[in-house]
Design goal:
Blueprint: E1 8-14, E2 17-23, H1 27-32, E3 34-35, H2 45-57, E4 62-68, E5 71-79, E6 95-103, H3 112-121, E7 130-135, H4 142-145, H5 149-162, E8 166-168, H6 173-176, E9 182-187, H7 193-203
Helix pairs in contact: 3-5
Length: about 210
């Protein structure tokens, strides 16, 4: 599959200053920018910065960032699903996962996440993909935000909707393990029926749901 990537950019004015939202950006450019020390939701900031550079080097990997001058304060990643997840079992060239989205606390609640997703979807090549994201409540910053599980889920859902992702049913055991967990999906306009059917088989791999 031809993993075309077309760079897009936009400015976002927030109460804490103007940000540049841009991407997908090249690994070299990503490496040269400073990575904010508060981007620690998944691992320590220097390790996460290195992980993003590695994703940007992948043929299908896409990183869209929000930056204040030369400092990255938020990002979203797209890449093939983890080989250990069921979503990789179909070996689908046109299925990619929104793996992580993160914004530093100072800029949260100001629409940065929504704009990261909107800029991601400005690239016409995204119409060739089924894009999925799996939301698990144990990854959410409930303590830092003071939100309940359901309030946080509503915020996440609203943000994903801005990128065209919608709730989809599945019998995946990890997602089914808590009612707040969910699978969200965006099916590109040029995705063929065969791929959609293959994805449906991945969503429901168990014959019976208990």
């Amino acid at each position: 599959m031809d993993h075309r990537k077309t760079y897009n950019t936009m400015e976002l004015k927030t109460k804490n200053g103007t940000l540049l939202i841009e991407g997908p950006i090249h690994a070299g450019q990503l490496d040269d920018l400073e990575f904010h020390q508060d981007l620690v939701s998944f691992r320590p900031a220097p390790q996460q910065h290195k992980a993003l550079v590695e994703i940007a080097e992948l043929p299908e990997g896409r990183i869209v960032i929000a930056r204040e001058h030369d400092v990255i304060i938020g990002y979203v990643t797209f890449l093939y699903p983890d080989p250990l997840e069921r979503w990789s079992e179909g070996n689908m060239a046109d299925l990619i996962e929104l793996g992580a989205i993160e914004v530093i606390p100072r800029f949260r609640g100001q629409g940065v996440g929504k704009e990261l997703l909107k800029v991601s979807m400005m690239d016409d090549a995204m119409e060739d993909y089924i894009i999925i994201t799996t939301e698990y409540y144990w990854h959410w910053d409930l303590k830092g935000t003071g939100l309940s599980v359901w309030e946080y889920r509503k915020v996440m859902e609203k943000m994903m909707n801005a990128g065209g992702l919608e709730w989809y049913a599945t019998d995946d055991p990890e997602i089914c393990s808590h009612p707040a967990n969910c699978l969200m999906v965006r099916v590109g306009k040029r995705v063929g029926q065969k791929s959609i059917q293959q994805f449906d088989r991945l969503r429901f791999m168990n014959r019976f749901m208990y």
